[in-house]
Automatic annotation (TrEMBL):
SUPFAM superfamilies: ADP-ribosylation. This is Dihydroorotate dehydrogenase. The lineage of its organism: Bacteria, Pseudomonadati, Pseudomonadota, Alphaproteobacteria, Hyphomicrobiales. It comes from Methylobacterium gregans. InterPro entries: DUF952 (IPR009297). Transmembrane segments: none annotated.
Amino acid sequence: MPLIYKICPRDLWREAEAVGRFTGAPVDVADGFIHLSAAGQVSETAARHFAGQRDLLLVAVEARALGDALRYEPSRGGALFPHLYGDLPLAAVRSVAELPLGEDGRHVFPAEIAA
């Protein structure tokens, strides 16, 4: 089953766990959807939007569990990115992993992600 990913500050994700759903980061709320990335996109997302940030988590989400609220729409350079129109239910989350910074200042992704 295909997984998609959300990079999230730890404190914001802990709030989501407390209420049982993720309503989005401030940028998501402002844009009207939750920004997600496919496995082949997430390292670029981290480099562009989270460069140098610590205390991040990588949330793996089962795409099919999101139903019609998930849409793939053009973004950077026409690439299709997954956007979730609605809250992210925690039942769709398959794993949450640390996203530490490496010595080179770039985020270190789990081995199963092509970074």
